[in-house]
Amino acid sequence: MVKSFQTRVLFILALTCLALPPLAGLAAAKPALKANPRNVIVLIADGCGSEHYTLARWFKGTPLTLDALLVGGVRTFIADSVIADSAPTGTAYATGYRTSDKLIGLGPKPGTIAGVSEPATEMQFKPLATVLEGAKLKGMATGIVATSRITHATPAAYISHVASRSQEDLIMEQAVYQDIDVIMGGGGQYLLPKAADGKRTDGEDLRSVLRSKGYVLAQTRDAMAAFKTGRLFGMFSGSHMEPEIDRLEFAPQQPSLEEMTRKAIDILSRKPGNNGFFLMVEGSQIDWANHANDPAHLISDMLQYDGAVKAALDFAKQDGKTLVLALSDHNTGGMSIGNYGTSKTYSQMKPDQLLDPIRKMKLSAPGLLRKVGNDKTPEKVKEAVKNYWAMTISDDEAAAILAIAKRDPEDPQNGFGEVLSPKYTAIGWSTHGHTGGDVPLFAYGPQSPKGLLDGPEIGRVTADALGLDLDRLNGRLFVEAQKAFPEGRVTMDKQDAENPILKISYGNRNAELPINKNILRLDGADRELEGVVVYIAETDRAYLPLQAVQAIKGVKTALPAVGK
To answer: Using CA atoms, how far apart are residues 308 and 44, in angstroms rounded to an integer?
Structure first.
């Protein structure tokens, strides 16, 4: 779409203001100019702060893979809060721009904290192109790996554009139509309609769409291992995958995070054409362990995440042309080594005092709750805690755990950590929520950043490494329909509320673009687009790729490059 000079300047200024930190002098220096890496791997430890790495190192007994890669830190605040949620921080890392709470892949809404500029009207809720989408346009292979549902906030931020992280059915639909080479994690229920015991309310069975696109659908570790070439959509659970500490007990058919990471790297690095790849890996459940104040779950998933980093580092060292970034999106739980129970004895703490209680824990808090079963009595709680956490607790403590489960029905497992950690471990917690401190940054390879970076700078560093110009990328993937066709007729057909269609009449041409898909129906013929069509109900605006605009207008000009 051709914009006026004034509009283009305002657009670029608005994006730039959102990308900058609110206080001068706190951004890291840009990496020295050098040849771009061929591949970029971003690994995110969701909800992980500095002290979590320390605890994992003590437990492992040897240095973490991450230790040798520490280069700085990241500030995680978002447009409307000092303390971040994963949706806006994931969006910052994926797009290079700061946004608001719960938004996925969109510009911020009005109402920002001091020091963050209010967004221009045209930037509010506007889709923001991701580094994964840019890598795909450059002909690179792309992949997403997570232990959560792949529709959860962090992976969603790289593959979708929705006004709430809770819109997981829309996120899954966009993921399917993004034509990503490898996706592995949980969330299979969002591929299926309710009639097939899924969660989709639009009646679509996205498995058939995936098969029509040539994907192999894998549901087990063995199926993943057997996969050779092509596109892989690995859905190893209907919802989230199991915590690592519970995996062999409850779902031995699921692969580990390290196994998925190694497989994804193998597939992407061998894609015909050898144009390089972009991969995002999330250790999703580190966050949930901290929400639950659960040190056993935390340690097992932390060490699995470190194993995934090792998989990336092993490849990067051999390849010599791969940038590895490893970081967190925020802290969760306010965990500390030491608590009120160690207030007078902390200076005599020995490693075994810290580690022995955790070594005896054989299941996560959610796993304990499953062992308690439907008969949630103090005796059943005491039995489960004795058998799997090696703690002999009182009737009052068991009752307190059940009372918290009743208080927090969405997170009934929280009671185990809240009640037992202060008395039976040396681990402290300040919250079941997130906290706002800076998080460590680890990196290896060409164009590794250094110093204290602002959250959106992670997206810019990634884009620079991939050779992407994010402003050009945004202009190519997300053109506002009404502005693109002021002389035409643009309507949103919502007769089927679950499957809206953008309709455009231009001259004697008629186009239909199903929302959340990469399909253009022009004069009765379908063609596949290089990006998805997005509709934002909050602003009543629809966005389509420039490719679709040019096709509808009959423009033969080549699409602008997205590289630098």
So the answer is: 10
Closest CA to 282 of 158, 170, 432: 158
Backbone dihedral region of 294: left (phi > 0), alpha (psi from -120 to 50 degrees) or beta? beta
Angle at 307 between CA 436 and CA 339, to 5 degrees: 40
Burial class (CB in 10 A: 0-12, 13-18, 19+), 467: middle
E strands of 35-69, at which residues?
A: 39-45
Burial class (CB in 10 A: 0-12, 13-18, 19+), 487: exposed
What is the average pLDDT value for the chain, to the nearest integer?
94
The predicted-structure confidence for 458-483, as pLDDT tens digits, reads as follows 999 999 999 999 999 999 999 999 99
Identify whether the C-beta of residue 254 lies closer than 8 Å to the C-beta of residue 247.
yes
Q: Are 129 and 95 in contact (CB under 8 A)?
A: yes
What would the DSSP string read from start to end of 387-411?
A: HHH-----HHHHHHHHHHHHH-TTS
Which element (helix H / strand E) includes 510? strand 509-514
Q: Which phi and psi angles does 401 have, rounded to 5°?
A: -60, -45
**Is residue 429 helix, strand or coil?**
coil
pLDDT at 12 over 80: no
Structure-block tokens of residue 324: 């590895």
Measuring CA to CA, how many Å separate 154 from each of 47, 182, 298, 360, 505?
A: 11, 16, 18, 32, 37
What are the angstrom distances between the C-alpha of 463 and each of 45, 135, 365?
A: 20, 9, 39
Who contacts 192 (Cβ-Cβ below 8 Å, separation ≥6)? Answer: 198, 199, 200, 205, 206, 207
Burial of 155 (0-12, 13-18, 19+ CB in 10 A): buried
Q: Hey, CA dihedral for 210, 216, 222, 224, is it positive or negative?
A: negative
Distance CA 87, CA 495 (A): 30
Residue type, 234: G
The three-state (H, E, C) secondary structure of 87-139, written as one string? HHHHHHHHHCCCCCCCCECECCCCCCCCCCCCCCHHHCCCECCCHHHHHHHCC
Residue 16's pLDDT is: 39
Task: Place 34 in a pLDDT band, splitting at 50, 70 and 90.
Answer: low
Give the DSSP H or E segment for 537: none
User: In 10 A of CB 306, how many CB atoms?
Assistant: 25
